[in-house]
Design brief:
There is one protein chain. The chain has six helices and eight strands. α3 crosses α4 and α3 packs across α5. By secondary structure, it is α+β, with helices and mostly antiparallel strands. The model has no long low-confidence stretch (mean pLDDT 78). Helix content is 40%, strand content 16%. Strands 1-2 form a two-stranded antiparallel sheet. Strands 3-4 form a two-stranded antiparallel sheet. The longest helix is centred in the N-terminal third of the chain and has 30 residues.
Length: 189
């Protein structure tokens, strides 16, 4: 039994990329479209996705090469051996803790909070972490001291870290008795 020309027309669809007219089963499902099929045929979509993934991969490789080249210092003398890269933990390079980087920034001459931030800050270190590191160096380890110069706070390294003051020990207080009979008995000393 021959099919009607209208039904045959509904089953065929033209891909705008390759220009071929194919059956609608050669087009992916897209419920957002009126006919329920994707605009492009499956073969053209596959080519687009493959090209896009290849371009993304090439971009990532080029970006990683550029970042690696910018992070390695150039040797002044050609015969001078390059310093060993620090050991890595998975995808991260090992960095000293933030409080050590803050201490090193102060040793190098950064005196204000903004100066310390300029030396210590990277995309993984927040301002809160830098503030916590300064508080740790000021209050816990007492390795740095602070002075107000005008309206700006300046940080300096102490010659010798001062020990943290110990709180006064109070004499032990006798614990309260737990039972009624213990309350009624006189306390013997």
């Amino acid at each position: 039994m021959p099919t009607s020309p209208r039904k045959l027309e509904e089953e065929l669809k033209r891909c705008p990329i390759c220009g071929q007219t194919e059956e609608d089963v050669e087009f992916g499902v897209c419920r957002a479209r009126k006919d329920g099929r994707n605009l492009y045929c499956k073969a053209c979509i596959r080519l687009k996705v493959t090209a896009s993934r290849r371009a993304l991969r090439e971009y990532q490789i080029a970006r990683n090469r550029l970042l690696k080249a910018n992070s390695e210092p150039a040797a002044e003398v050609a015969n001078e051996p390059q310093p060993q890269a620090p050991p890595t933990l998975g995808w991260r390079s090992r960095k000293p803790p933030v409080h050590e980087r803050v201490r090193d920034a102060i040793v190098r001459g950064a005196r204000t909070y903004n100066g310390i931030m300029a030396v210590v800050w990277d995309h993984r270190t927040s301002k809160d972490e830098v503030g916590d590191a300064i508080a740790k160096l000021l209050l816990d380890t007492r390795e740095i001291r602070t002075e107000m110069v005008g309206e700006t706070r300046h940080y300096f390294l102490r010659e010798k870290p001062q020990p943290k003051p110990q709180p006064e020990k109070r004499p032990a207080v006798r614990a309260a008795p737990f039972t009624w009979t213990a309350l009624c008995q006189p306390i013997s000393r």
